[in-house]
Design goal:
Number of helices: 5
Strand content: under 5%
Structural class: mainly alpha
Oligomer: single chain
Helix content: over 70%
Number of strands: 0
Distance between the termini: 44 Å
Shape: globular
């Protein structure tokens, strides 16, 4: 099967799932906290870890299935899960400085850049 088609299929399913779950969580919990995004990120992290654990060192899972689920679906559902997986790998390998730079850098710099982008967008 064509890799682009597999990615597109998984990406479409992940995007629709994120939209659906986020909306349900936000309506259930109200607007005072971004619970929709929180719920998607936490579920995405659990699912990414579960899939990785299932696929790791096991025969029988095709590269296309891995591409469909991990890159396509999970990539569109939430990239937060990849961010947490990579941070966990740094922790497991004892790369504590890299872990701090990754978590702190992406969080603080990401927030700063969103605010900067918003400010620039208002000026244009």
């Amino acid at each position: 099967m064509n890799k682009i088609f597999v990615l597109a299929l998984g990406g479409a399913a992940g995007t629709l799932s994120r939209y659906w779950l986020s909306g349900i969580a936000q309506r259930f919990f109200g607007a005072s906290f971004p619970m929709g995004t929180f719920a998607v990120n936490m579920l995405g992290s659990l699912c990414f870890g579960l899939l990785w654990g299932l696929f790791e060192n096991r025969v029988g899972f095709s590269p296309e299935l891995r591409l469909l689920l991990l890159t396509g679906f999970m990539g569109a559902f939430t990239t937060f899960s990849t961010y947490m997986f990579e941070s966990g790998a740094l922790l497991r390998h004892g790369q504590y400085l890299s872990l701090l730079l990754n978590v702190g850098g992406q969080s603080l710099l990401g927030l700063t850049l969103v605010l900067l982008g918003m400010a620039l967008g208002r000026l244009v």
